[in-house]
Amino acid sequence: MSFPFVLSAAVFLLALTDELVSAADFESTFRKEVSTFIGSLDEDQRAACLHDSGDQRRWEMRYTGGNRPGIRISQLNDDQRALMVKVLSMVLSPEGWKMANAVAFQDAKEGGDALGKYWITCFGDPRKGDFAFRLAEHHLTIVHLELAEGEANEFGPILLGANPATLWKQDELALMHAWSLVKNENALLLGQRAIASEPMNEADGIDFTSLNAEAQKAIQDAWVKRLRIFTEPIQQKINRLHEQRGGWQRSRVAYYNEAPSKRCIDGGRWDFKCGLPGMVWAFESSRGHIHMSLWVSADGE
After folding, report:
1. C-alpha distance across the termini of the chain, in Å
2. Residue 178 within any structural domain of the chain
3. Less Cβ crowding at N or C end of the chain, within 10 Å?
4. Do 139 and 241 belong together in one domain?
């Protein structure tokens, strides 16, 4: 994506965000905007973009680059691309849009149309029933799931990353700060590396409620920072799903590999995971760059 388009899209996003996300019925508005985007595609583009709602690739969690189902952003004309930005403005906050572009530019290597290689996919047709809208490729997967009943009961997978590990500094520092407030470090630090996108083992780490009050607050603050890339309605959805699956009372927390005493860019090789049944949010830097994950399953298992 050229810099002029990034800047104009960012301004467009800022102008739209308050108008769109403050709608009384977020779900129906989101469905309408995605339907408008789908309607702007020609027959071949629609065939590439639309996939069955039960397609197992909808839940694929893959950080590596390469082909995905859907239509590449570079294949959209300017009007279609503007409609895509309008949809994303309902999911990503202005900061989230900025970070998405930063990830894309970092992975582009040669510059140019950084977001152009990313794929837009609809699993299901928003004009008819259940659907999931996804933007995905290397180190950036954003999914919003919409259900026909008007309520989302799953969310994600959200996969984020950075190589080199210069992005997501706030998340990194927040989790390092939380560690500094833990009193029972031995119980919290595990030797093995944790794959960010995989569920948390039930026996890993310790109960969130067993942490001291300062450490609990620091981890909750880190959670808020993770959600900052989303608009307020999306944050509310994720927090509601979090509570439905047991919230902080059922959460378990663990750090892996080594104590988080320094950032990945400075040689830190540590991972973090907080999980409860049917939900995970994680940070991984033990591979020498950053992977982050957030997902909520439909059945809570």
Report:
1. 39
2. yes
3. C
4. no
CA-based Rg of the chain, rounded to a whole angstrom? 19
Listed residue (227, 206, 225) closest to 217, CA to CA? 225
Q: Which of 98, 117, 152 is the last residue of a domain?
A: 152
228 contacts: CB under 8 Å, gap ≥ 6: 93, 95, 96, 170
Looking at the fold, whether 134 and 190 belong to one and the same domain comes out as: no
Residue 90 lies inside a defined structural domain of this protein: yes
Phi, psi of 50 (to 5 degrees): -90, 130
Q: Report d(CA 26, CA 233) in Å as an integer.
A: 7
Domain that holds residue 221: 169-296
Question: E strands, 36-170, where?
Answer: 50-51, 71-72, 119-123, 131-137, 140-146, 155-162
Read off the pTM: 0.86
The pLDDT of residue 155 is 85
Total number of domains in the chain: 2
Query: How many residues does the structure list for the chain?
Result: 301
Is 62 part of any domain?
yes
Sign of dihedral through CA atoms 94, 83, 33, 111? negative
Look at residue 163 in the predicted model and tell me its pLDDT: 92
- Retrieve residue 230's tokens: 């989303």
- Do residues 137 and 65 make contact, with C-beta atoms less than 8 angstroms apart? yes
Which parts of the chain sit beneath pLDDT 70? 1-24, 58-59, 61-64, 109-112, 146-152, 184, 299-301
Distant-in-sequence, close-in-space partners of 158: CB < 8 Å, separation ≥ 6: 141, 142, 143, 292, 293, 294, 295
